[in-house]
Design brief:
Blueprint lengths: L12 H18 L6 H20 L15
Length: 71
Protein backbone atom coordinates (compact mmCIF):
# COMPACT_ATOMS: atom_id res chain seq x y z
CA UNK A 1 0.00 0.00 0.00
CA UNK A 2 1.41 3.37 -0.95
CA UNK A 3 0.00 6.86 -0.67
CA UNK A 4 0.46 10.01 -2.67
CA UNK A 5 -0.91 13.48 -1.93
CA UNK A 6 -3.08 12.23 0.92
CA UNK A 7 -2.79 14.33 4.05
CA UNK A 8 0.21 12.98 5.97
CA UNK A 9 -1.43 13.89 9.28
CA UNK A 10 -4.37 11.64 8.55
CA UNK A 11 -2.59 8.66 7.03
CA UNK A 12 -0.16 7.02 9.39
CA UNK A 13 1.65 3.72 9.44
CA UNK A 14 -0.75 2.06 11.90
CA UNK A 15 -3.74 2.95 9.73
CA UNK A 16 -2.11 1.52 6.61
CA UNK A 17 -0.98 -1.62 8.44
CA UNK A 18 -4.50 -2.20 9.77
CA UNK A 19 -5.93 -1.68 6.28
CA UNK A 20 -3.40 -4.12 4.84
CA UNK A 21 -4.33 -6.80 7.40
CA UNK A 22 -8.02 -6.45 6.59
CA UNK A 23 -7.32 -6.58 2.86
CA UNK A 24 -5.19 -9.70 3.19
CA UNK A 25 -7.90 -11.54 5.13
CA UNK A 26 -10.60 -10.50 2.63
CA UNK A 27 -8.39 -11.55 -0.31
CA UNK A 28 -7.72 -14.96 1.26
CA UNK A 29 -11.48 -15.47 1.58
CA UNK A 30 -12.06 -14.36 -2.02
CA UNK A 31 -9.32 -16.61 -3.41
CA UNK A 32 -10.99 -19.73 -2.01
CA UNK A 33 -13.42 -19.47 -4.93
CA UNK A 34 -12.77 -18.82 -8.60
CA UNK A 35 -12.06 -15.10 -9.03
CA UNK A 36 -10.80 -12.78 -11.73
CA UNK A 37 -8.41 -9.85 -11.49
CA UNK A 38 -11.43 -7.58 -11.95
CA UNK A 39 -13.14 -9.16 -8.95
CA UNK A 40 -10.01 -8.73 -6.84
CA UNK A 41 -9.57 -5.09 -7.88
CA UNK A 42 -13.20 -4.35 -7.02
CA UNK A 43 -12.81 -6.05 -3.63
CA UNK A 44 -9.62 -4.13 -2.83
CA UNK A 45 -11.17 -0.80 -3.78
CA UNK A 46 -14.39 -1.47 -1.87
CA UNK A 47 -12.75 -2.71 1.34
CA UNK A 48 -10.02 -0.04 1.41
CA UNK A 49 -12.45 2.80 0.67
CA UNK A 50 -14.88 1.70 3.37
CA UNK A 51 -12.10 1.24 5.93
CA UNK A 52 -10.35 4.56 5.27
CA UNK A 53 -13.63 6.47 5.19
CA UNK A 54 -14.68 4.94 8.51
CA UNK A 55 -11.38 5.95 10.12
CA UNK A 56 -10.75 9.38 8.53
CA UNK A 57 -14.13 10.55 7.13
CA UNK A 58 -12.33 11.14 3.83
CA UNK A 59 -12.82 9.35 0.55
CA UNK A 60 -9.45 8.97 -1.20
CA UNK A 61 -9.00 7.78 -4.76
CA UNK A 62 -7.94 4.16 -4.59
CA UNK A 63 -6.36 2.56 -7.64
CA UNK A 64 -5.72 -1.17 -7.19
CA UNK A 65 -2.79 -2.51 -9.19
CA UNK A 66 -2.30 -6.28 -9.42
CA UNK A 67 1.00 -7.52 -10.71
CA UNK A 68 1.23 -11.16 -11.68
CA UNK A 69 4.45 -13.03 -11.07
CA UNK A 70 6.08 -14.45 -14.18
CA UNK A 71 8.40 -17.39 -13.66
Amino acid sequence: ISTSNFNKLIVNKELLDECKEILISKLHEALKAKTTFGDLKFLIKQVATDFIYAKTKRCPMIIPVIMSKVD
